[in-house]
Description:
10 helices, seven-stranded mixed sheet
Amino acid sequence: MAKLFFLVSGENPTLPFAEVKAILEAENFTYSILFKLTQVLVLKSDSRCLESIAHRSSLTRACGIFVTRCKASIKEILSSIKRVSLEDYISPSESFAVRIRRIRRSAPEINGLLLEREIGRIIFESVKGTKVNLERPEKTFLGILSDGNFIFGLRTIEIKGGEFKKRGPSRTVFSHSAAIPPKMARCMVNLARPKAGDLVLDPFCGTGSFLVEAGLIGCRVIGSDIKRKMIEGSIQNLSACGVKSEGLLIADARVPPLPPSSIDCIVTDPPYGTSTTTLGMRTSEVFESFLSAARDLLKKGGCVCLAAPETVNVSRIGEELGFKHKESHFIYIHRRLTREIAVFTR
């Protein structure tokens, strides 16, 4: 078990942390959380989990081996790093760089560039034979200023969001105004905790966003939608992203043409906005009827991750139908809509 740090997105206060934990659980890595700061999570786990985070996560920015933590003052930081056995993290023949990230203007009195140079000098003098290389270093040390703390680690993974932008609404073959953005779709897939090879269903598949993201991390996918136009659009989008489905069906989510206990996970965004149709049903009825059908489709222990207006109180609906409410996260969209991302287990 190694001490690991995760620098996560600041787009939501809880979702990025929940995504890291969900991925670890999906990939069967045991972990224990040591502490959490704004956009920083430090935990103990098998270091091999970092590759899983790199492959799956949409809301993690960087991660690696945790080295030390102290108060955010130049004196404390340099003293703390001098006490570290730096030869445990870099060999004499290796090149390195030091980078500083400041979270939400933490410790504004600290000059980041000056701190990078001072830490670099300590590493250079402590481990003879190392070389500074700011362009293509073999090792990158990352210092993070957050909540008046300084976290220092060896960054082994950096995750860029370019691949998600390539699948954004302006670049997909078929798009719709109600479609969930790729980064959020991937996060919700992760919250459902599927493993590679698991069968993931979206019974309101729309443009296929969830199916694409689940397929790209190695899941088998199946989708349905009551509108033929959406199924045709999903077929185009999955094909453009190189994802093969187990089936795309024109079907009513209330009466899915699938056998009981055949699905490992369900990830979906049922209709509830002005740009989608609810077939004349009240929004709460949409969720009640869908979750009732989902209960029979899911294997025991399987997860449902869905989006709903906060006003629907979907966690109550799910529990009344026999699901265990695992977690909820809230995203403010505009004055009339705060979206709840809820996760249930069967």
